[in-house]
Amino acid sequence: MEDVKGDIGPDGRYTVYTRDKKGAAPGWYFVTVDLARTNPKDPYDYKAMVSEKYLDKAKSGLAFEVIKNPEPGRYDIRLESAGQTKK
User: Fold this and answer.
1) Across-strand partners of 75?
2) What is the number of structural domains in the chain?
3) What is the pLDDT of residue 27?
4) In a domain, 78, yes or no
5) For residues 23 and 5, is the Cβ–Cβ distance under 8 A?
6) Is pLDDT larger for residue 39 or for residue 14?
7) Does the pLDDT of residue 87 top 60, yes or no?
8) Which of the residues 28, 40, 68, 80 could staple to 51 if both were Cys, CB 3.0 to 4.6 A apart?
C-alpha cells in the first residue's frame, strides 16, 4: 500500500496526498498523526501537541475506509493532546 500523507491547516481542515496528487484511493488505511510546535530557526525545538501514541499506526487506534463520495465529516477525528489521558 502506498503512503498517503496530509497537511492540517490552522483551521483544522486537512488535505491528503498520495505521492504528490490530492486524495487517496478507496480502501482501508491506518492513520498516524504528528502535530507539533516547531521553530524553523532551531531544528531541535519540537513540542508535541498530540499524544505520542498517534505516531504509531499500531497504537493510534485510527483506521479509516476511504470510499467514493463520503458524507461530510466521515474522516474527522478528535485527538488527545500531549499529556492528556482518557478518564
Assistant:
1) none
2) 1
3) 92
4) no
5) no
6) 39
7) no
8) 80
Residue 73 lies in a domain: no
Residue type, 26: P
Q: Is 19 inside any structural domain? A: yes
- Long-range CB contact pairs, 8-15, < 8 A, 24+: 8/35
Q: What number of residues does the chain have?
A: 87
Range of the domain at 36: 4-65
Buried b (16+ CB within 10 A) or exposed e, 8-47: eeeeeeeebeeeeeeebeeeebebebeeeeeeeeeeeeee
Q: Quick one: 63 exposed, middle or buried, by C-beta within 10 A (0-12, 13-18, 19+)?
A: exposed
Residue with cell 508535541: 48
- 79 lies in a domain? no
